[in-house]
Amino acid sequence: FVSTPLAANAAGPDWGLFEGRTGSLLHPAAMFGMAAMSASTALLGFQWRRQRTLGDEISALKKTLPDLNGASSVSEALAAAQSADTVDSALINALTQERKDLASQGPRDKHFNQGSLLLFIGIAFAIEGPLNTYARAGKLFPGPHLYAGAGLVVLWALAASMVPAMQKGNDTARTVHIGANVAGLGLFAWQVTSGIPILLKVLEFTKWP
Questions:
Q1: Is there a contact between 68 and 81 (Cβ–Cβ < 8 Å)?
Q2: Per-residue pLDDT for the chain (209 aa), expressed as one digit of tens each?
Q3: Measured between alpha carbons, how far is 195 from 155 in angstroms, rounded to an integer?
Q4: What is the dihedral angle through the alpha carbons of 123, 126, 127, 133, rounded to the nearest 10 degrees?
Q5: DSSP per position, the chain
Q6: Structurally, how many domains does the chain consist of?
Q7: Has residue 21 been placed in a domain?
Q8: Is the residue at 55 inside a domain?
């Protein structure tokens, strides 16, 4: 992106559409879309985490159910069964249904597919933005937006690198994955606000196409 009027003029070969307004708007358009996609992918990730942890909750609750084989009389067994049916069994049934509902939506595969697409598009357009600026100005303009964008790519890479360990049940990897993506969402939100002034300069100092 540009930050001065001079940056709108090509500083080298004629790059055609790539150095005009059309090419300049590819980066912000993609990033606005990715911001929404990032939020959607995060939601899917938390849904998959909920589905996965529900199994542990259900197993733990089942262990609290009374052992009817240890009852000393029929009346004691009936009382224990009635108590379990009104408290723990009802909760177990509700959690089991919630887990089935989540499983029917397939959040795991959707999260993986969207995350993979997000990683590809994000890296591609994180590179395209500076290249577009260089094509017009012959240089880059170091600043918070550029540095934060590079940091965001690092966070994406960190989150993706945790996946193999996560698939083996490593909770530390899961924590790092979630932490990197939550930090990335925060950084992404800041990038959008810091990028708007740059976008306005692009609109001011570039022409179609």
A1: yes
A2: 444 444 444 445 565 656 678 888 999 999 999 999 999 999 999 999 999 999 999 888 887 766 655 556 667 666 666 665 555 678 889 999 999 999 999 999 999 999 999 999 999 999 999 988 888 788 888 888 899 999 999 999 999 999 999 999 999 999 999 999 999 999 988 888 888 988 998 888 877 87
A3: 19
A4: 170
A5: --SSGGGGS-SSS--GGGGSHHHHHHHHHHHHHHHHHHHHHHHHHHHHHHHHHHHHHHHHHHHHS--GGG-SSHHHHHHHHHHHHHTHHHHHHHHHHHHHHHHHH-HHHHHHHHHHHHHHHHHHHHHHHHHHHHHHHSS---SHHHHHHHHHHHHHHHHHHTHHHHHTT-HHHHHHHHHHHHHHHHHHHHHHHHHHHHHHHHHHH----
A6: 1
A7: yes
A8: no
The boundaries of the domain holding residue 195 are 5-48+107-205
Whether residue 153 contacts residue 122, with contact meaning beta carbons closer than 8 Å, is answered with yes
**Residue 96 domain-assigned (yes or no):** no
Give the C-alpha separation, 81 to 143, whole Å: 67
What pLDDT shows up at residue 71?
55
69 lies in a domain? Answer: no
